[in-house]
Amino acid sequence: MKLLLATQHLQRIGGVETYLSDIIPALRQAGHDLAVLAATGVGGGVAGGKDTIFRSAPDFPVFVASDMGGEAALAAVRAWRPDVVYAHGITDPKLEAAAMAVAPSVFFVHVYHGTCISGAKRFARPVLRPCHRTFGPACLLHYFPHRCGGLNPFTMVDLYFKQRARLRTLRACDAVVTHSFHMFKECAKHGIDERRLHRFVYFAPEQQQDSSRAAGALNVIDAASVHGWAPEQPLKLLFAGRLDINKGVNLLVEAAVLLAGQLRRKIAVTIIGDGPDRHAIETQIGRIVGGTAGPITFEMPGWLPREKVRERMMTTDVVVFPSVWPEPFGLVGPEAGHLGVPVAAFDVGGVKSWMVDGVNGVLAPGDPPTAGGLAVAIAACVRDEPKYRRLCKGAVEMAERFSRGNHLEELMKVFHHVAGK
Questions:
Q1: Looking at residue 205, what DSSP letter applies?
Q2: CATH assignment at residue 191
Q3: Among 55, 274, 300, 312, which has the minimal tally of Cβ within 10 Å of its Cβ?
Q4: Rounded mean pLDDT, 246-271
Q5: What is the pTM of this model?
Q6: Is the dihedral of CA 150, 275, 90, 206 positive or negative?
Q7: Alpha-carbon span 283 to 291, nearest angstrom
Q8: 148 and 233 together in one domain
Q9: pLDDT, position 216
């Protein structure tokens, strides 16, 4: 089957590009012909590597609208004659709609594409909390009072009409794929015909089954190799993701202070990633480390390659997922689970797609999310040895549901159905 992958970026920016970098080799291995339409490329061309969605230089067509021009890229796509367009979101509604019209279309809804003016699906005022509204003209009345986005009215109106156009395109697709029940409900609420709406298990990158941490978890975990519950050891916490207001890293920093007092234990926090809030978080940490908050250490190494993130995860005690917006899914949860690491997270969005409270981690209340609630959830993971062992074991067992093979099998059923093959 000839599959066109339509996306915004060739460069790895976030979860969409991480997904594409994993699914592309799987689709190739399954014998499908691929091409990629990207709205924007990367500096120096589209050679493969760690910074792009390609693991090596692609040996299939790649059409980049920012380099070729939109019309030329679309003409090249039409000439290639795909059987199915597999779309992942393009910010230009006209380019997106034109690409989706080339062939039968399947849209993977990774984020709130066409269902929120800013795409964040959260209020920032009076407190930061998830938004449950249905997208429509009334959202314009909430945008400024609730600080859904910035303060420019022209930007607000422009984004509103772009999102409205995206929603029209989404409703016209032959099939829409979601990765969580939360996003399934979001799409259905916004007029996507449930006969064309599909929800099936997402996947985390496959991990080595002989991983020492995962093998230990499956064997009820050797106490000598796990110290998350041991009060004489520093409690190692890890966050990995983009540093912006939606990810709640500031609440993790506050929670670490509370934990040091509650557990009377050293706390070591590693914050992996970068983004617009990095300076604010560094300033917040500086006030804590420079004060009398207790024995807390912070490390901020910036963005790391995925294998390096995995190495850090394998030596941490609890992965913290403090997102305050309604995360559509949250891939870091299953990734931690493959390594036998429990997760503490706010109960927002699609987190419950991979988290069962008390089985592979602990949930904190998410409406509204607070540092105190997050601290309680982290502490509950490590208060005693038997529970911590159960959570580590449960993390591996839950993560086994998230496999590339299962995902690809369900995805191909949708492709064949829309293509009529």
A1: P
A2: 3.40.50.2000
A3: 55
A4: 94
A5: 0.84
A6: negative
A7: 12
A8: no
A9: 45
